[in-house]
Amino acid sequence: MKKNIILIGFMGVGKGTTARAFAKKYEVYNIDTDDLIESKENKEVKKIFEKKGEAYFRKLEQKTADWIIDSVQGTLISCGGGFYKVKNLHKMGTVVLLDASFDWILNRLKTAKNSESKLAKRPLFSQEAEAKKLYDEREKAYKKVADVIVNVEGKSLEEIVKEIAKKCRVQ
Ligand SMILES: Nc1ncnc2c1ncn2[C@@H]1O[C@H](COP(=O)(O)OP(=O)(O)OP(=O)(O)O)[C@@H](O)[C@H]1O
Ligand SMILES: O=C(O)C1=C[C@@H](O)[C@@H](O)[C@H](O)C1
Fold first, then answer.
1. Residue whose CA lies nearest to ligand 2 atom number 1
2. Which residues of 107-128 are buried (b: 16+ CB within 10 A; e: fewer)?
3. What is the ipTM of this complex?
4. 25-84 pLDDT, tens digit each
5. At 63, which helix (H) or strand (E)?
6. Checking CA distances to 13, which of 73, 101, 124, 128 falls within 20 to 30 Å?
7. What is the C-alpha separation between 106 and 111, in angstroms, rounded?
8. Thinking of the domain 5-166, which architecture would CATH place it in?
9. Which protein residue has the closest C-alpha to ligand 2 atom 8?
10. Which residues belong to the annotated binding site for ATP?
11. Where along the chain do its domains lie?
């Protein structure tokens, strides 16, 4: 796999989990843009939002995109929920949207084992009504920017991973 695969989608849809499973099955590396930013800043995303604000975080996302374009190949890259807004997204690789309805995402997050700690890390998901508003604003934009769309509702992790590979022609 030479071209990167760029996983986008709303918070909690399963980008990180899917990226790890894909990387294992197809023996590629996977990285996550939130993790890259946290290690570069030596601060959690939540703290960056609190201390420096969202605009600063978005600049870090753009820097990360520029670095990926210059330096990363053949890698599965899972992205923060707002990362799709960077310029040159398509230069990074094949853009794959993991898609699901807001209610489905919320329901799975609420029933997941690590749900409380997951939600606590995501400042934009701290209020359900606000998160729904953000989802509604983004839904069309995600679909517009995606090269490939994979609906994840009711599918196993294995099915999702295989569908991504098939649609991106990875063997
Ligand atoms: N295919 C799946 N089957 C079962 N549970 C899953 C699957 N994908 C994700 N999950 C669970 O759903 C929750 C959210 O998944 P994950 O952290 O991968 O989402 P994310 O899109 O990376 O979120 P964020 O962008 O907020 O980091 C986790 O509790 C995870 O264990
Ligand atoms: O949807 C968003 O805008 C965000 C999602 C998270 O992955 C983090 O990147 C951050 O909390 C912002």
1. 81
2. ebbeeeeeeeeebebbbbbeee
3. 0.93
4. 999 999 999 999 999 999 999 999 999 999 999 999 999 999 999 999 999 999 999 999
5. helix 54-71
6. 73
7. 9
8. 3-Layer(aba) Sandwich (3.40)
9. 80
10. 12-17, 122
11. 5-166
